[in-house]
Design a protein that fits this description.
Elements lengths: L2 E5 L1 H6 E11 L3 H8 L3 E2 L4 E5 L2 E5 L2 E2 L16 E4 L2 H14 L2 E9 L5 E10 L2 H26 L2
């Protein structure tokens, strides 16, 4: 994996991620330049399977500063590059289990291509949020105790 450009932190907070998959992203010239500058927002974005093709919906790629009047539309739907079997598996699992396909991050591969990490996600309930917070607090307390032991207190 290459350089991470943008992360969807809210996705890991609002959803339980059951599986991940990497997909290519079809971008125009000004979009890839803007992505490489890190001017991407994945909040409220999701992936949709439509007519046998995967699409990234709701991702905001800011217009490139060096662009002209032919600059790209910031919130347009962008095609995802996946194999037919991957698309069929994603669609089947999302439909059967009632899962959502959310982008977790966008990164630039070692070959300079924009890639999206997709997650099959199930929405968290209120008690799941409380459980996650309790686990994080317990882990923090344990780390604090271990640090005190190492310091010799």
């Amino acid at each position: 994996m290459g350089k991470t450009v943008a992360q969807n932190r809210k996705a890991r907070h609002d959803y339980l991620i059951e599986g991940t998959l990497e997909a290519g992203l079809v971008l125009t010239g000004t979009e890839i330049k803007s992505v490489r500058e890190g001017r991407v927002n994945l909040q409220d974005a999701y992936a949709r399977i439509e007519h046998g093709e995967a699409w990234l919906v709701g991702a905001h790629v800011a217009p490139w500063a060096g662009g002209n009047r032919n600059n790209h539309e910031p919130r347009r739907d962008r095609k995802l590059l996946l194999h037919r079997t991957q698309i069929d598996q994603l669609a089947g699992r999302a439909r059967a289990k009632g899962l959502t396909i959310v982008p977790l991050d966008i990164h630039i591969s070692d070959r300079g291509q924009a890639k999206v990490e997709l997650g099959l996600a199930r929405g968290k309930k209120a008690y799941d949020h409380r459980h996650t917070i309790a686990e994080r607090d317990a882990r923090r307390d344990l780390d604090r105790e271990l640090a005190d032991v190492r310091r010799g207190r």
